[in-house]
Specification:
Elements lengths: L8 E8 L5 H16 L4 E9 L2 E11 L2 H8 L2 H7 L11 E7 L17 E8 L5 H15 L5 E9 L5 E8 L2 H8 L2 H11 L6 H4 L1 E5 L3
Antiparallel strand pairs: 1-3, 1-4, 2-3, 2-8, 4-6, 5-7, 5-8, 6-7
Helix pairs in contact: 1-3, 4-6
């Protein structure tokens, strides 16, 4: 079943796990992910880790609508994941609700068959007042990348409730396709321009994540 992209709820979730609870947290989150896959209203749910942040786990999710997400929150496997906050996390779960600034035109979203792909997630925090400039940069860049060989998805999101937070989510068929993308002149120009607008550096913002959803 399909729906308009405007109905879809997209989430980027961070969990800061106590080192001694890492295995427990992974088990609880995998149960949540696999349970979500069985729900009609779930389009995508992936669990990631990143070597440079060994005790942080990430979820990227898309839901048919808010009602589907609320139903997910009631499931026992989801309650189990939220229960990690009682004793196994350093701080409460960070849930970022996202708006895809340029969803694919004339296409509808639907449930995806899970595939482990080469994935980057890049949370940006721009300096105050620079939101419009970074949006302008990516408005030109996103359609170019979507035409590149091996690109599966390239989505740029604003974080709801903030003028300064954005999340880039990109997926590639393999590492070679990503490396070819990174060598392009247009990519280098974008990185240079974005670096002037954000807090920190572009490279420091990139999460080189590994899909551990299976």
């Amino acid at each position: 079943m399909n729906t308009n992209n405007t109905d879809t709820v997209t989430l980027f979730v961070k969990l800061f796990v106590k080192s001694e609870s890492n295995a427990k947290a992974r088990q609880a989150l995998l149960a949540d992910v696999h349970g979500a896959w069985s729900e009609e209203g779930n389009y995508k749910m992936e669990l990631y880790d990143a070597a440079e942040k060994p005790n942080v786990l990430y979820l990227f999710e898309r839901w048919k609508n808010q009602a589907a997400l609320e139903n997910h929150f009631k499931q026992p496997y989801t309650v189990g994941a939220f229960d990690l906050q009682k004793a196994d996390l350093v701080k409460p779960i960070e849930m970022n609700y996202l708006t895809d600034l340029w969803p694919l035109v004339n296409e509808t979203l639907k449930k995806e068959e899970h595939r482990a792909l080469t994935t980057l997630i890049v949370p940006f925090e721009v300096k105050p007042g620079n939101g419009p400039q970074i949006i302008e940069l990516f408005e030109k860049f996103v359609p170019l990348v979507r035409q590149e060989q091996g690109n599966v998805e390239f989505s740029f999101h604003s974080v709801k409730g903030s003028d300064n937070l954005f999340v880039l989510y990109e997926r590639w068929e393999n590492q070679q396709n990503l490396e070819a993308h990174n060598k392009l002149e247009t990519t280098g120009e974008l990185v240079d321009s974005v670096g002037k607008l954000i807090n920190g550096t572009v490279l420091g913002s990139v999460l080189f994540v590994t899909d551990i959803s299976k």
